[in-house]
Structures are given as structure tokens and as C-alpha cells.
């Protein structure tokens, strides 16, 4: 099975996972804008059991739109956001696609929280758009 790899900006945190993501989306919510410093994040929903991490991550306890806790795992050295765990999706992790070594291996299927999308940003072709989360 193909292994996909990635890591943070400084290289202190590296990861690998096997299998294909269940879902790939772009998220335009304000939390993703703040945590990335950009307009949106790329999110791959993968099985936690398929994911192996090298190097410790720092943790930030956030809360999602639903009010449920979201554990955000960062590199404590360079600050790259690597993945999140959402309490309402046990056994899954939301991997930030910008940290992949080969981000073009995956194409987004949907855009979410488009109500917050940058007004100058065109819709991505062949994606479903959702005003809020799904
Ligand atoms: Zn780092």
C-alpha cells in the first residue's frame, strides 16, 4: 500500500500514513485562517491507526463550530499545524494537507465554510461548496 509522508517546516515532526483519505476538503473557517495565516486549509480525513508520527507535537485545545473540543497538534519549534483530532470523530485525524511532501497527490472534493471564504478567491472547479461544515 502506498505510503504518504510529510512534516513540519523545520523537520522536527515527520509523519507517514497508508491508505487513502476518506475525504479531502478545503476549509475557509476563521479558525483555519487564523491557525494557518492563509485563506483556508487543506484537510485530509484519515484513520488514526494508519498514521505514524515521529517527533512530539505541542497541543492547543480549540473548540469547533459545534462547540466540541478540537485538539490541534503543532510543531512546538516552528509552529506548523500538522493535524487535529475532533472529539466528535473518534479514531480519525484531520491532517493538514499543506504539510505533505507531495500535496498534489490529493485533490479536494469539497469546500466548506465558504461563507468565510476570501471574496477575491474563485471557487475551485469540481468541488462541492458548503456554506458551513458538513
Ligand atoms: Zn517544526
From TrEMBL:
Name under which the protein is recorded: GFA family protein
Family per similarity comment: Belongs to the Gfa family.
Database matches in Pfam families: GFA
Source organism of this protein record: Billgrantia pellis
InterPro entries recorded: CENP-V/GFA, Mss4-like_sf
Alphabetic keyword roster: Lyase, Metal-binding, Zinc
Every CENP-V/GFA domain range: 4-121
Molecular function GO labels: carbon-sulfur lyase activity; metal ion binding
Amino acid at each position: 500500500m502506498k505510503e504518504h509522508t510529510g512534516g513540519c517546516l523545520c523537520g522536527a515532526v515527520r509523519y507517514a500514513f497508508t491508505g487513502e483519505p476518506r475525504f479531502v476538503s478545503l476549509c475557509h473557517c476563521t479558525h483555519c485562517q487564523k491557525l494557518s495565516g492563509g485563506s483556508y486549509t487543506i484537510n485530509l480525513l484519515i484513520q488514526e491507526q494508519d498514521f505514524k508520527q515521529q517527533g512530539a507535537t505541542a497541543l492547543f485545545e480549540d473548540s469547533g463550530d459545534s462547540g466540541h473540543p478540537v485538539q490541534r497538534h503543532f510543531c512546538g519549534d516552528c509552529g506548523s499545524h500538522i493535524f487535529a483530532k475532533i472529539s466528535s470523530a473518534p479514531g480519525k485525524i484531520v491532517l493538514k494537507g499543506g504539510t505533505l511532501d507531495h500535496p498534489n497527490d490529493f485533490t479536494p472534493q469539497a469546500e466548506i465554510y465558504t461563507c468565510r471564504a476570501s471574496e477575491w478567491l474563485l471557487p475551485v472547479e469540481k468541488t462541492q461548496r458548503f456554506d458551513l461544515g458538513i
